[in-house]
Amino acid sequence: GNFLAAVRVAGAAQTTGSNASYRINGGATQYSTSNDVANAVPGVSMTLKQQTTGPVTVQVAGKSSVLSERLQAFVSQFNSTMGLIGTSTKFAEKGQSGSLLGDSTLLSLQSTLRSLVGTPATGNTSALSSLASIGLTFGAVGSAAGAANTLVFDAAKFDTAMKSDPEGVVR
Fold it and tell me: Is the pTM of this model over 0.70?
């Protein structure tokens, strides 16, 4: 057994490898024992392809389908919560009123939740300063009374916003 002799490289010059080194945004030099780097930026994996002495610009594209699914899940939970509050606080003249009819805490919570979703973000000056601008609305302007009580997610509007201004969506 000598492996190097068996593969006929016993006499060849040998060079040991070195760790890959990189910097992010001019920060401290970081090292990796392979060209595959994970967790240098949370949620991002990258493969270092070649050596360079100059800066390299890397663009990271988010998975809008995952975000879209999470927004749809949020809408479903929001509507479920608002429905439960509505059922619990409803008034029925000739039927069974909700067991928490008139509960000011629940009515305040319902109002606050709706306001949080409908109010533009403070300090955000981008065109995407509200959830409505990325596809979360309570229905079209001029909807019939009661028709705009549930939150609606417009996936096409969200996808358009993600393609045109992903940083604005994040803000």
Answer: no
Query: How deeply is 20 buried, as exposed, middle or buried, from its count of CB atoms within 10 A (0-12, 13-18, 19+)?
Result: middle
Angstrom distance (rounded) from CA 71 to CA 171: 15
Residue 32: what are its φ and ψ, rounded to 5°?
-140, 140
| Each residue's pLDDT tens digit, 106-125 | 999 999 998 888 888 887 77
- Distance, C-alpha 164 to centroid of its chain: 16
Residue 5 CA to residue 165 CA, distance in Å, equals 59
Spell out the SS3 assignment of 99-130.
CCCCCHHHHHHHHHHHHHHHCCCCCCCCCCCC
pLDDT digits (tens, 9 = 90+) for 53-95: 888 888 776 667 888 899 999 999 999 999 999 999 998 888 8
Specify whether the CB–CB gap between 20 and 34 falls below 8 A: yes
Phi/psi class of residue 42: alpha, beta or left (left: φ > 0; alpha: ψ in -120 to 50)?
Answer: beta
User: By C-alpha distance, which of 147, 151, 153 is closest to 68?
Assistant: 153
**Rounded Cα distance, 154 and 136, in Å:** 6
Q: Which two tokens stand for residue 92?
A: 């029925």
